Amino acid sequence: MTEVQRALRRASKVIPAADARMLLAHALGVTPARLLTAGPLHGHQIDAFDDLVRARVGGTPAQYLTGRAPFRTVEVAVGPGVFIPRPETEVMTGWAIEVLRGRAGEQTVVELCAGSGAISLAICTELPGHVQYAVELSAAAVEYADVNLAGTGVILLQGDLADALPELDGTVDLVIANPPYVPLESYDGIPAEVREHEPELALFSGLDGLDVMRVLTRTARRLLRPGGWVCAEHAELQHRSAPELFVADGGFDQVRDRCDYNDRPRFVTARRRTTVAGLPL
């Protein structure tokens, strides 16, 4: 057994194995894929790894300790004050990319509740050539998004989604969002490391978790052109209540709920109506 394998086995007794690999790779200055080919560990590397493991045992997210988080084909800078992108959101992002791929010409894309900008970065990396905007309320999160989206051409704006981008009303092809959606009544059920480290603004949204989703529904209706699409992530328990907001709004059709990697309800998609009472918009 190599030194790397011994270090990983020791750490995996107290933290998740995936976190142990991420932290050891960070301590060695290599990618996790290159861990098994890494040479002998030096004393300062072992000390650094042990410090990271202790911090992780104390509840600090591994991504905050490394300052990086993977998302689809990209990696973003993260840290205290910004929400850590989750693998579940990758499926919704992939759905959006396929919608854009199926359309001819340059499309206009708006990400609301952008956080670190991971979704926008993934889209422009995997499918460049579109006009993209990212809107985020938190000043702390915008600092990370600014770093992550630098040089991409994505237009980053700090502001409230409720009145974002009025100059684009009726012209946007795709609105995508991972809004806060945890119900306040579920506060105690959220893991302590999430509650204590990640920003509440990115997590909680009223008693039923849908306060921001209600605003998002109205903003998407305002921004989208007829036939444009919106997709928005939600909690598993909101698989009926989240789509019902888009149905009740009256400005959308083809409302459908969709699942994540684990086949759990995770995001709603809806199309901006092209007609009302048989008349074109």
TrEMBL record:
<dbReference type="InterPro" id="IPR004556">
    <property type="entry name" value="HemK-like"/>
</dbReference>
<keyword id="KW-0808">Transferase</keyword>
<dbReference type="InterPro" id="IPR007848">
    <property type="entry name" value="Small_mtfrase_dom"/>
</dbReference>
<dbReference type="Pfam" id="PF17827">
    <property type="entry name" value="PrmC_N"/>
</dbReference>
<dbReference type="InterPro" id="IPR050320">
    <property type="entry name" value="N5-glutamine_MTase"/>
</dbReference>
<keyword id="KW-0489">Methyltransferase</keyword>
<dbReference type="GO" id="GO:0102559">
    <property type="term" value="F:peptide chain release factor N(5)-glutamine methyltransferase activity"/>
</dbReference>
<dbReference type="InterPro" id="IPR002052">
    <property type="entry name" value="DNA_methylase_N6_adenine_CS"/>
</dbReference>
<dbReference type="GO" id="GO:0032259">
    <property type="term" value="P:methylation"/>
</dbReference>
<dbReference type="Pfam" id="PF05175">
    <property type="entry name" value="MTS"/>
</dbReference>
<dbReference type="InterPro" id="IPR040758">
    <property type="entry name" value="PrmC_N"/>
</dbReference>
<feature type="domain" description="Methyltransferase small">
    <location>
        <begin position="97"/>
        <end position="181"/>
    </location>
</feature>
<dbReference type="InterPro" id="IPR019874">
    <property type="entry name" value="RF_methyltr_PrmC"/>
</dbReference>
<feature type="domain" description="Release factor glutamine methyltransferase N-terminal">
    <location>
        <begin position="3"/>
        <end position="67"/>
    </location>
</feature>
<dbReference type="InterPro" id="IPR029063">
    <property type="entry name" value="SAM-dependent_MTases_sf"/>
</dbReference>
<keyword id="KW-0949">S-adenosyl-L-methionine</keyword>
<protein>
    <recommendedName>
        <fullName>peptide chain release factor N(5)-glutamine methyltransferase</fullName>
        <ecNumber>2.1.1.297</ecNumber>
    </recommendedName>
</protein>
<dbReference type="GO" id="GO:0003676">
    <property type="term" value="F:nucleic acid binding"/>
</dbReference>
